[in-house]
């Protein structure tokens, strides 16, 4: 018999021996409990002590509170284990290989890469052709600049050769600010305006550019023509020694 049972009995003049036993009638549930909080952890139903009926009620209430407090912790632990397990599955290379293998094989991926490279190459080829066509369009004109009759009519210059010679002279040490049109397609409408008095808007329609572009071209070329051609005319008009040398008048005899 344990020390707890002897203390619970508390009978004067009673000395327990090794053969002493406690009957099941002295326990509320009919047998002892291993739970220290349970009323039957020690004999509680004794003839010389009143029975406390509320002992089991208090035990059940305390046990319920403990179970409620423990349950969220257990659920949190279970959820943590589930999340950890899912993370491990996501990081498992074998698992990833299986998922990829069910969708695309390595051969399929290589075919897609080759197809993508071919598409990129085709796009670059189309972009190059587009740029070439744009360059040709910017250099093209509605007029044949090598036709002497048209050059003479629209610009007043005697021939196409004179037109290109004058163009080369002006652009030797100077580059037009506007790059929308080629230099010859800029110089030609400038001469057309000076000879025929055409408006900027009319020239914009003829050369397929904006009104502002024609205006910028005209002022740009007019400035360089005024500077270079005025200098040329001044050189050509400089008197020579032949005309400046005084010739003595003959004297009458």
Automatic annotation (TrEMBL):
Coiled coil start-end: 109-136
Swiss-Prot/TrEMBL keywords: Coiled coil
Q: Name one Pfam family in it.
A: HTH_Tnp_4
Q: Which domain of life is it from?
A: Eukaryota
Q: Where is the Transposase Helix-turn-helix domain?
A: 180-229
Its recorded name reads Transposase Helix-turn-helix domain-containing protein
Its source organism is: Synaphobranchus kaupii (Kaup's arrowtooth eel)
The taxonomy runs: Eukaryota, Metazoa, Chordata, Craniata, Vertebrata
């Amino acid at each position: 018999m344990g020390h707890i049972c002897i203390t619970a009995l508390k009978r004067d003049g009673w000395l327990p021996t090794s053969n002493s036993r406690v009957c099941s009638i002295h326990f509320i549930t009919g047998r002892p409990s291993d739970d220290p909080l349970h009323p039957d952890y020690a004999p509680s139903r004794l003839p010389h002590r009143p029975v406390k009926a509320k002992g089991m009620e208090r035990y059940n209430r305390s046990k319920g509170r403990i179970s409620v407090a423990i349950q969220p912790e257990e659920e949190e632990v279970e959820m943590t284990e589930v999340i950890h397990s899912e993370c491990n599955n996501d990081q498992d290379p074998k698992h990833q290989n299986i998922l990829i293998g069910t969708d695309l094989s390595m051969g399929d991926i290589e075919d897609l890469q080759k197809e993508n490279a071919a598409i990129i190459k085709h796009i670059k080829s189309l972009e190059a052709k587009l740029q070439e066509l744009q360059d040709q369009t910017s250099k093209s004109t509605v007029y044949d600049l090598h036709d002497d009759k048209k050059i003479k009519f629209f610009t007043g210059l005697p021939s196409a050769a004179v037109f290109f010679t004058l163009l080369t002279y002006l652009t030797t040490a100077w580059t037009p600010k506007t790059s929308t049109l080629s230099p010859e397609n800029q110089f030609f409408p400038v001469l057309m305006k000076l000879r025929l008095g055409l408006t900027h808007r009319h020239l914009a329609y003829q050369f397929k550019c904006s009104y502002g572009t024609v205006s910028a071209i005209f002022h740009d070329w007019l400035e360089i023509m005024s500077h270079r051609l005025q200098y040329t005319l001044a050189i050509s008009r400089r008197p020579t020694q032949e005309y400046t040398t005084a010739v003595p008048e003959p004297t009458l005899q």
